[in-house]
Write a structure and sequence with these properties.
Structural class: alpha/beta
CATH class of the largest domain: Alpha Beta
CATH topology of the largest domain: Quinone Oxidoreductase, Chain A, domain 1
Helix content: 10-25%
Number of strands: 17
Distance between the termini: 25 Å
CATH architecture of the largest domain: Alpha-Beta Complex
Shape: elongated
CATH superfamily of the largest domain: Medium-chain alcohol dehydrogenases, catalytic domain
Largest sheet: 7 strands, mixed
């Protein structure tokens, strides 16, 4: 018999409801997991709620992609997972009769046990709320690892939404000196509380001059996580330039002078508006390594779970509000008007036992 579940549904642009829906049957190589907590990815979910990301013609739909749950049923061919296991899940199997973008905000899910959509097992005795950040934090981890940061390097993170906040945390974990930028003073205070070296409010008319002094010649790594054209067009200006002798003794160094020493720009955001650049003027000196990581893999998710287990990254530093799923509309509204920095929805609390 199909399970009847609660799900958060976007019924239209800016219209959020909770509906009762029927889950599909469990396949032979699938597991059913009862949701304990879900974590909202504000950038993605609010843009989907606004009709972006090809969502305007897909309502009604279930949003979200980050859940902590307990396994309650396993398919006949499943060998590795056991009933009672705690998991971190990403994009589940769609619920019949409704669209999915990406279907995580629901009271139960069906996951395959192989492929990129498979859940990640949590450690024995894990406290579910501690791991609710795992799926979103692993997106930032992938971007930071792409830049291959070295202890002692200077890194600037533009934007202190969740992706930017997690990026700053991972860069600090690697031993970098981290400066963060935003236009929201509250977000900058939160970043200071998490231990970044410096904060700069980009609403300050002298923000770029301030960053030039703080960075002392430019950053080795810039992470652009604001998702705005202004952020993207600012990012390259903050990268360091390779010292060159421009003057009476002008000399063009061999291009190998740069070998393995380009500054790195990580485009860690999605953009609704196109961003136009002049490639020649965009490069500091003669070049920059531009990285645009997409999504996150199982290995990134496993690394994040281990970092949480060992205390290198803590959910409590990033969770602002924990609300019953019935208050979903208020939760999304609070994210839109900046009442909340982040929101966790709680579902089947008994499943945490």
């Amino acid at each position: 018999m199909s399970r009847v579940i609660n799900a958060i549904v976007y019924e239209a642009v800016d219209k959020v409801a909770v509906q009762r829906l029927k889950l599909a049957e469990c396949g032979p190589r699938e597991i059913i997991c009862e949701t304990i907590y879900t974590f909202v990815s504000p950038g993605t979910e609010l843009r989907v709620l606004g009709g972006h990301y090809s969502s305007s013609d897909k309502y009604p739909l279930i949003p979200g992609y980050s859940a902590i749950a307990r396994v309650v049923e396993i398919g006949s061919e499943v060998k590795g997972f056991r009933v009672g296991d705690l998991i971190s899940g990403r994009n589940p199997k769609p619920v019949p009769g409704i669209n999915s973008r990406w279907g995580g905000q629901a009271g139960a899910h069906i996951y395959p046990v192989s492929g990129e959509e498979r859940p990640v097992l949590l450690p024995p005795g894990a406290e579910p709320l501690d791991y609710v950040i795992a799926e979103v934090a692993s997106i930032s981890l992938r971007g930071v690892e792409a830049a291959n940061p070295v202890a002692g390097e200077t890194a600037v993170v533009i934007g202190q939404g969740l992706i930017g906040a997690f990026s700053a945390a991972w860069l600090m974990d690697r031993g970098c000196r981290v400066i963060v930028c935003d236009v929201d003073e509250g977000r900058l205070r939160k970043a200071s509380g998490r231990g970044v070296a410096e904060t700069v409010n980009m609403a300050d008319p002298n923000a770029m001059e301030r960053l030039e002094v703080i960075c002392n010649g430019g950053a080795d790594i810039v992470v652009e996580s604001s998702g705005t054209s202004a952020g993207a067009l600012t990012s390259y200006k903050l990268l360091r330039k390779k010292p060159q002798a421009y003057g009476a003794d002008y000399k063009v160094e061999p291009i190998a002078f740069y070998h393995n020493d380009w500054p790195r720009l990580v485009m860690q955001a999605n953009y609704i508006e196109p961003v136009s650049i002049d490639p020649f003027g965009f490069m500091p000196g003669e070049g920059v390594t531009i990285l645009a990581p997409k999504d996150r893999g199982v290995e990134d998710r496993l690394k994040t779970v281990e970092a949480i287990r060992t205390g290198r990254i803590k959910a409590g530093d990033f969770i602002d509000a924990v609300l019953p799923f019935e208050q979903a509309a208020a939760g999304y509204e609070g994210l839109k008007n900046r009442k909340y920095f982040s929101v966790v929805y709680k579902w089947n609390e008994g499943a945490a036992k």
